[in-house]
Every structure is written in structure tokens, then in C-alpha cells.
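Thread: 6-O-phosphono-beta-D-fructofuranose complex, take 2
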Amino acid sequence: PRYIWLSRHGESIYNLEKKIGGDSSLSQRGLQYAEKLPEFVRESAGDRDLTVWTSTLIRTQETAQHLPYKQLQWKALDELDAGVCDGMTYEEIEETFPEDFKARDEDKYEYRYRGGESYRDVVIRLEPIIMELERQENILIITHQAVLRCIYAYFMNVPQEESPWMSIPLHTLIRLEPRAYATHVTKIKANI
Ligand code: F6P
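Output below.
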């Protein structure tokens, strides 16, 4: 069968500090996930020769560092750009830009950060990735929460407007098997 593997990067320092965006390294737990990932992938992929796609950000590359496969970086897989809010916590955003905070909650799919992106923008920049994925086999993608929501929604046939609210937990390897009428999903959760 044709599979696609997906994972968020391991927990980052910014995740711990509840800050969005940035380019921080992994936390201790995040590094543990990176260490366990090769074993999970082997459990799920056997001896298939995968190709790993990461974003250009440090946390995805650190997550991929122990995987014994060739790796490719895509700028298109970088996290949703939060513009002027990059590096802030949600509390700080609510205090500094209360109207934006409210607007985002009311229409999270369309809301575009000042100087940054909306989910719709991300869906559009993911088009080449999706096209390439449809042609390739044995790809493991290590990327970010918002980007994974959009990719996951695409394969699960969920309307993109719902993608901003989908739950994609940390430290979980997702395997998709696109079939004619539905995509079959298997998840392996790391115990760390
Ligand atoms: O907090 C991690 C993170 O990947 C941020 O970098 C990003 O802005 C956010 O999640 C996206 O999630 P949401 O759209 O729910 O704010």
C-alpha cells in the first residue's frame, strides 16, 4: 500500500514557554521524541526506504536528526507566519491586539496576522507540496501544527475551513493510507 507519514516536531523551548512561531530548539522531551522516532518509523514502515521532508526551521530538523533516510527541506513547510505576533504568547497577543485576537477567534481560517499569514494562505502555499505528495511514495513529513492541520484535512477530506480547529497532538506519528473513498489512519503515540 501507499503510505504517507506525518509528525509534528518534538516539543520545542517555545512550546514550553507558550510562545508562538520563532525558531527555537527542542526541549529535553522534544529531544527524547527525536531519539525514539526512528524506532516508531521502523515499526510502521518496516524496511521501506523513506524520504524525510522537513521545514527550514531548526525544530523540525532536530526532530529528524536520527532518522537514517535522505532529507529534504521545504520553505513551504514552515509554520504559519504570525507576523508581528511572532514570539508572543496568546495572552500577550490578547493584551496587545485585543481586536485581532477576537477577529481570529471568530474566523480563524481567514484571519491573517499583521505582516503574516492566514490558514488560507498556508493552504495555498501547500499546493506544490500536495501535488508532489500525490506523485511520490514513502514520504515522512515533519512539520508544524498549522501546516499539519492543513495537510491532514486535505487527505481526510475535511473542509479546509475546519482545519484550524483540528487536533494534531505532539509526539505522535501518524500514518495515512489514502484509499479510493477514504483515507485510513494509524497513530503511534510516544510515551514520553
Ligand atoms: O504553538 C505552536 C504553533 O505551532 C505556533 O507556532 C503557531 O502559531 C500555532 O501553533 C498555530 O496554532 P493556532 O493556529 O491554533 O494558533
